[in-house]
Amino acid sequence: MAGIVAAIVVYALGVGACAGLIYGWFTTRAARRLMAHSTAPERTPWPRVDILKPLHGDEPGLADNLESFVAQDYPARFSMVCGVADAGDPAAKAVARVTTTHPGVDIRLVVDPRQHGPNRKISNLINIDSLALSGPSLGEVVILADSDIRVGPDYLRRVVSALMQPGVGAVSCLYRGQPAAGFWSRLSALGIDAHFLPGAVLGIVYGLARPCFGSTIAVKREVLAETGGLPALADKLADDHALGEAVRATGRAVVFPPMVVAHLCAEQRFMDLWRHDLRWARTIRALNPGGYLGSIITYPIGLAVLAVAVAGFSMPALAFLAATIALRLAIHARLQRLFGLPRAGLMLLPLREILSLAVFLWSFTGRSVDWRGERLDIATHASLARNPESIR
Question: CA triplet 331, 194, 147: central angle to 5 degrees?
Answer without folding.
Answer: 150
